[in-house]
UniProtKB/TrEMBL annotation:
Organism name: Komagataeibacter xylinus
Protein name: Superinfection immunity protein
InterPro entries per record: Phage_imm
Keywords on record: Membrane, Transmembrane, Transmembrane helix
Ranges annotated as spanning the membrane: 29-52, 59-83
Pfam families attached to this UniProt entry: Imm_superinfect
Amino acid sequence: MNIHVPSTYEVYRGWQSIQGTGLEIGTTLLVGAVLVLACSMVLFLLPTFIACRRKVHNAAVVAVVNCTLGMTGVGWVIALLMACLLETDASRHARLRRSEPATFLTVP
């Protein structure tokens, strides 16, 4: 009966083929972390993007509220509401041409 007992080197080489080189695993983790960070930043700045896309009159105020208070969660919801409900530039100019009084929140 001939029994083969693998050497330490053979065990190590077999483990490497299963595990990967380490560089591949580290690169995958790094790319995954960067993607998660990028997606979370886009989600965090969503109220600012909405305010800029809608051309809200005070988009800078929405951005300041979002960046300073957004981490609390409540501040992020407030910034999102401001981005969705504040008056746009076009409706503000039309209102000023008609000389109507301003309201705090004008729903488009």
